[in-house]
């Protein structure tokens, strides 16, 4: 079968960033003629700057500026030569000062990203393994992709989870000489710290464990001589620890610095460390500025600067403690994260703060999960207490206003970030803006004509189809095939429906729409751990159904209010179930829905295209062929028609026990051979339920051959077809014997027989669902692009599968 179209991470990120750009909170330009670090001008508005990563304000220090200017005058704007040949005249002095700062020689890199690319592939040997914290900086993760080309195992654990780390160490211990755990010293979004002492304790228990820290956000403002947060905890660098610091950000200059206690390894990195060898070296101005900054770091002045910043951090914390502002992590780092959960709340709060004269950074997907959106506030020595106080006052003033305007609340934020026990609403019917909600957990409690009018005539989820699904899945003994059902109908006060939909709650494989190569690897893991990398999902529709699962009355004046009401109810249920993911699926592209869902914290991803045959107005095989394009007609005449007489074709409404067993075997053949859409295998009782339901029938292909008796009446293909309201014919599942698929074109024949049967029964369309779009298009199917909108409690699975995807490309 043809592969399905998979989600495109870049498209999803572009969608989010484009939304933020339209809201005027990202991709901005400073307009100042001169920068002072305290204020910044955007679109003519001067604001206090609470978005810098220059925490000590050294980028504006006159000594660094003078040093840089003099270096340009003496040595030019750059020294265009690799350091492998010769370094510019200032490098030796900088390296000497850095050695004094850290007590051992260091390695200077162009920046931390190139530093990681130089160091990681050099220090991690072929017999080693790597474990990444899933929030470690992108530059570390990117450098580790190079390791996979050499077959080095690279694993990932959830953020700062020591139990998972120890489990991964045990897994790798027997096959790896060294096991490297890579993390940030200070994480750039929430400002939280790596559990350094716990890691050192773990490394004593497992001597194979080595630690690699990106400490660029911990540099200068912490530690003796400003050597960073990690060393402020460790005091000295152990033999099994490496640290990448920065000469940018708080250091005030440019470049990065590697601290490696192993002299032999350090020399190896310096002699041949990828970009260290082949990339340009730091410009003279940058080296001179770094020398001037290093001189400050080596003087008692660094203690004064650190104390000044610490005082302002303490003051900010004191002010915050007197408020109910949802600061996610409170510690003594200069990075603070105020959670808003919903992107629209973030955008409006940033806009309001801009108007009040405060520049802050919106933190959005993929830097944080979509529903963990918020504002990153950073402090520097430039910030004065009066503007710090004014910022807190502005946050206290505007956050409640924004939350009310956007239908948000502190409780929602607390739920999104797991800050308090989940709050649950038990109201079954809620009236908002003249709307009425009907919520049920069984289709039998829904008015049958109403449901069929709104959501009938497609796929297998008319009223009767939903009753069948509940029978098959609501009470299953298998956790992976046990679903809860939730029905929503929203009407206006006059009873006119605006929205109707249903959701199921169950276990999904996280790689369901990932590439087949990822699923193959994960299925190997699932032999021992069946629920490895799976999630509890509250999803629109079900894994069995395809099509438009949500009726939306776009013409109704209260449509946006109705959508927001639905999302509000889903959030309550999502938190009540403690689900891992919330999925709204199978929508066609719609600008209004894109805007609403994005603003409410959903990330849009591409779904596989849907395939529908609409033209059933023909009365012969020749007439059907004439409905196809010239190329498809030739395909039909050459690859479908000649094989029809090879089969004895039966259409049955009832199957014997033996036929059910054989059909199930053929279904599993297809399921196990097609991981492009990877779900759990349906249980045998589903197929027994199909036989008992009058709306199902089965198109069965038996080989007939007088020359070869063993083929006679051998079942080699089956379509499991649902008849929806005498309107839509839905071949929902397929089974095939792969020994004969190519020789007798079984798949194509089954598709054609499904279309032919729908025409015989006078159905209006055939809903072929998704996958194998190329084959279905050749038989006249219309291809309909579909998208889904997703919320997840964290990005771990997405990042892990992204890592696995890159590994499979080697």
Automatic annotation (TrEMBL):
<keyword id="KW-0032">Aminotransferase</keyword>
<dbReference type="GO" id="GO:0030170">
    <property type="term" value="F:pyridoxal phosphate binding"/>
</dbReference>
<dbReference type="Pfam" id="PF00155">
    <property type="entry name" value="Aminotran_1_2"/>
</dbReference>
<protein>
    <submittedName>
        <fullName>Bifunctional aminotransferase class I/II-fold pyridoxal phosphate-dependent enzyme/GNAT family N-acetyltransferase</fullName>
    </submittedName>
</protein>
<keyword id="KW-0808">Transferase</keyword>
<dbReference type="InterPro" id="IPR050087">
    <property type="entry name" value="AON_synthase_class-II"/>
</dbReference>
<feature type="domain" description="Aminotransferase class I/classII large">
    <location>
        <begin position="47"/>
        <end position="395"/>
    </location>
</feature>
<dbReference type="InterPro" id="IPR015421">
    <property type="entry name" value="PyrdxlP-dep_Trfase_major"/>
</dbReference>
<dbReference type="InterPro" id="IPR015422">
    <property type="entry name" value="PyrdxlP-dep_Trfase_small"/>
</dbReference>
<dbReference type="GO" id="GO:0008483">
    <property type="term" value="F:transaminase activity"/>
</dbReference>
<dbReference type="InterPro" id="IPR004839">
    <property type="entry name" value="Aminotransferase_I/II_large"/>
</dbReference>
<dbReference type="InterPro" id="IPR015424">
    <property type="entry name" value="PyrdxlP-dep_Trfase"/>
</dbReference>
<dbReference type="InterPro" id="IPR016181">
    <property type="entry name" value="Acyl_CoA_acyltransferase"/>
</dbReference>
């Amino acid at each position: 079968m043809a592969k399905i179209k998979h989600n495109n991470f870049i498209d999803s990120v572009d969608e989010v960033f484009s939304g933020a750009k339209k809201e005027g909170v990202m991709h901005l330009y400073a307009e100042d003629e001169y920068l002072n670090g305290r204020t910044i001008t955007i679109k003519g508005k001067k604001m206090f700057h609470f978005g810098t990563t220059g925490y000590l304000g050294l980028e504006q220090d006159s000594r660094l500026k003078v040093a840089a200017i003099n270096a340009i005058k003496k040595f030019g704007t750059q020294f265009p030569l690799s350091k492998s040949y010769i370094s510019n005249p200032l490098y030796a002095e900088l390296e000497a000062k850095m050695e004094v700062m850290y007590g051992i020689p260091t390695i200077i890199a162009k920046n931390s990203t190139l530093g990681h690319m130089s160091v990681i592939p050099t220090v991690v040997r072929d017999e080693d393994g790597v474990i990444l914290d899933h929030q470690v900086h992108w530059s570390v993760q990117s450098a580790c992709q190079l390791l996979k080309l050499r077959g080095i195992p690279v694993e990932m654990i959830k953020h700062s989870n020591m139990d998972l780390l120890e489990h991964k160490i045990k897994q790798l211990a027997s096959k790896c000489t060294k096991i490297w755990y890579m993390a940030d010293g200070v994480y750039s979004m929430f400002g939280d710290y790596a559990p350094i002492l716990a890691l050192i304790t773990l490394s004593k228990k497992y001597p194979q464990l080595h630690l690699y820290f990106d400490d660029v956000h911990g540099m200068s403002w912490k530690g003796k001589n400003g050597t960073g947060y990690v060393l402020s905890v460790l005091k000295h660098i152990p033999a099994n620890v490496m640290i990448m610091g920065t000469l940018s950000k708080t250091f005030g200059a440019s470049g990065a610095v590697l601290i490696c206690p192993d002299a032999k390894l350090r020399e190896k990195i310096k002699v041949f460390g990828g970009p260290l060898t082949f990339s340009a070296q730091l410009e003279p101005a940058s080296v001179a500025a770094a020398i001037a900054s290093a001189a400050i770091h080596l003087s008692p002045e660094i203690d004064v600067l650190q104390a000044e910043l610490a005082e302002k951090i303490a003051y900010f914390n004191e002010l915050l403690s007197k408020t109910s502002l949802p600061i996610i992590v409170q510690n003594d780092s200069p990075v603070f994260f105020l959670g808003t959960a919903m992107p629209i709340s973030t955008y409006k709060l940033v806009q309001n703060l801009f108007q009040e004269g405060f520049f802050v950074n919106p933190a959005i997907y993929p830097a944080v999960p979509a529903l963990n959106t918020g504002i990153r506030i950073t402090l520097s020595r430039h910030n004065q207490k009066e503007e710090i106080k004014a910022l807190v006052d502005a946050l206290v003033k505007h956050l409640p206003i924004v939350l009310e305007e956007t239908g948000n609340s502190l409780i929602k934020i607390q739920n999104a970030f797991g800050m308090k026990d989940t709050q649950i609403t038990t109201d079954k019917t809620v009236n908002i803006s003249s709307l009425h909600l009907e919520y049920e957990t069984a289709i039998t409690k829904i008015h049958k004509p109403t449901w069929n009018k709104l959501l009938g005539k497609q796929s297998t989820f008319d009223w009767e189809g939903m009753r069948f699904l509940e029978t098959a899945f609501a009470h299953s003994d298998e956790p992976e095939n046990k679903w809860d059902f939730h029905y929503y109908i929203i009407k206006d006060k006059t009873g006119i429906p605006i929205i109707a939909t249903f959701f199921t709650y169950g276990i999904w494989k996280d790689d369901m729409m990932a590439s087949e190569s990822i699923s193959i690897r994960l299925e190997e893991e699932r032999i021992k751990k069946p629920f490895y990398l799976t999630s509890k999902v509250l999803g629109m529709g079900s894994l069995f159904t395809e099509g438009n699962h949500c009726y939306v009355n776009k013409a109704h004046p209260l449509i946006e209010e109705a959508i927001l009401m639905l999302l509000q109810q889903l959030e309550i249920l999502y938190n009540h179930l403690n689900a891992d993911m919330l999925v709204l699926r199978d929508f066609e592209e719609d600008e209004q829905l894109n805007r609403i869902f994005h603003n409410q914290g959903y990330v849009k991803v591409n779904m596989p295209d849907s395939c529908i045959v609409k033209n059933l107005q023909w009365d012969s095989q020749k007439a059907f062929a004439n409905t196809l394009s010239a190329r498809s007609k030739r395909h039909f005449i050459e690859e479908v028609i000649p094989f029809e007489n090879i089969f004895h074709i039966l259409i049955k409404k009832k199957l014997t026990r033996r036929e059910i067993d054989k059909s199930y075997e053929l279904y599993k053949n297809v399921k196990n051979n097609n991981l492009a859409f990877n779900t759990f295998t349906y249980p045998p009782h589903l197929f027994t339920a199909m036989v008992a339901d009058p709306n199902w029938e089965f198109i069965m292909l038996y080989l007939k051959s007088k020359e070869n008796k063993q083929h006679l009446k051998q079942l080699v293909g089956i379509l499991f077809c649902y008849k929806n309201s005498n309107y839509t014919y839905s071949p929902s599942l397929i089974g095939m014997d792969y020994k004969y698929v190519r020789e007798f074109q079984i798949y194509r024949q089954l598709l054609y027989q499904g279309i032919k049967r729908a025409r015989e029964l006078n159905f209006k369309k055939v809903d072929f669902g998704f996958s194998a779009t190329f084959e279905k298009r050749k038989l006249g199917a219309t291809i309909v692009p579909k998208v889904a909108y997703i919320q997840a409690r964290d990005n771990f699975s997405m990042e892990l599968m992204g890592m696995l995807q890159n590994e499979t490309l080697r």
